[in-house]
Amino acid sequence: MIAEPHAEALLRYEWRQTTGFTPRDFARVLPLEVPHLLVVESVATGPWAEELRGEPGDGLKALLAWCAERGIRTVFWHTHGDVSAYAASAELFEHRFTTDLTVGWPRLQFGVQPRVHNPLPLSGGRIDRVLTLDQLLPGHLAYPDVLTSYRWPAGVDCPPGTPMWRLAEIAACGTPIGPDPDTRRAHVALRRAYDSGTMTERIDELLDKVGLPSARATLDTSVLLVIPEPGRTEHALAQVARQSGVAQLVVFGPPEAGERARDVLPDADVIHRPLRPELTVGAMLGRGLDLCEADLVAVMDPRDVYGSHYLSDLRRAFLFTTADIVGKAAFYAHLRKPQATLLKQPEAEYSYLPEIAGATLLARRNPLRELGFADLTDGWDEVLMRQCRQDGVKVFAADRFGYVRVRDEDRWLLGAAHLVEYGSAEPHALI
Question: Which of 99, 132, 186, 306 sits most deeply, having the most CB atoms within 10 A of its CB?
Fold first, then answer.
């Protein structure tokens, strides 16, 4: 790659990347790497800038000839500057892409890079101030310092005309945008920033267009669901049906559960097994795990409420953490008898913790198979979390939204959680 620090930082996680070579030394540096692709950004500084602007320089011509001799594909990426200044050089490349909607080349936009644009907090937390964009990013900060600054304030008040990629990067770091910080709006903005496209998705499009393979692990999910009471079947299946990315449902339940599951999940592989009274919930989950085929496995509780973004929000954590298990330690709960809505551990968001709630478990399949499920109906999740601590398996607690634990009453929750209000939890949790 020949790129500015911004693009270089975003792309370094997508492939094995070589940078820093010059017109004088590329013929000595690049053979050590055996590259498959050359990507050249419309750089404005550095040793290649003059080679690219106006009449193509001899160094650029030599680099492209060197690539042609070895069958190395070449891409020019126009990201800033007057495209006419780079037009002559761009014509020498096999493929041309641009971020400029007024230029008639194929699009290759910036996307968020989960490895650097994510809501993992700074060690000291945020300051209790809303900053303007100029206050947040003074002068010419190096890009690593920009990434730190994104996570620093309580919010950022961005002026009209702020580039969309900049707004997406700030939002992807979980920082509220606007004069009045709001965690709910910030969560929705984070979700939209990721939905607008990650660099992995952008690069997969690029590789497809230039004819190189783009093999990636998927985030497809198998859901494990045990429905011990027939009266909960419709509610439980409705919670699964509203999720995206469900490739498979393994359901233990009454006889009608299998047929109903196929009705509400027509695009998923549904495996139904009858309830066996002699088996604990943990034992059924263990048998169901052996049938799971997707890369990720989720456990859902038929009593609880899951928002439509529940699984997609949780899956996102696998893009920026090294955890094998993700779930929620901060969550809303609703107790029917007192009609109370509670919030448990609001401070336990976006952090590696000793345990998460079993009803919010989302795990990589193979590590979960190695751990297994305890032969218990109540407490199987506590045993699993204890096993994770013993084996050094990383567990990550995500955001508080998208899930409501529903019980008639729960003395432990009443003593361990904050009272939000008397009324429904869904307006608080489901966004």
Answer: 306
Closest by CA to 312, choosing from 385, 424, 403, 425, is 403
- Which residues, other chains included, contact 278 with Cβ-Cβ below 8 Å and sequence gap of 6+? none
Starting at the edge strand that comes first in sequence, how are the strands of the sheet with 37-41 ordered?
37-41, 73-78, 95-98
The 10s digit of each residue's pLDDT in 129-163 is 999 999 999 988 899 999 999 999 999 999 999 99
- Give CA 287 to chain center in angstroms: 29
Structure tokens, 319: 């893009």
DSSP bridge partners of 132: 157
Question: What is the DSSP pairing of strand 417-422 with strand 340-344?
Answer: antiparallel
Amino acid letter, residue 34: V
Q: Among all chains, which residue has been given the structure tokens 């190695």?
A: 370
Rounded to 5 degrees, what angle do the CA atoms 266, 269, 273 make? Answer: 110
pLDDT digits (tens, 9 = 90+) for 18-49: 999 999 999 999 998 889 999 999 999 999 99
Where do the H-state alpha helices sit in 12-57? Answer: 26-29, 49-52
d(CA 25, CA 38): 15
Specify which residues 326 forms β-bridges with: 362, 396
CA–CA dist 92, 94 (Å, integer)? 7
Nearest to residue 227, comparing CAs of 236, 214, 219, 240? 236
Cα angle value 203/362/397 (rounded, 5°): 90
Spatial distance between the Cα atoms of 54 and 45, rounded to a whole number of angstroms? 14
Rg of the chain (C-alpha set)? 25
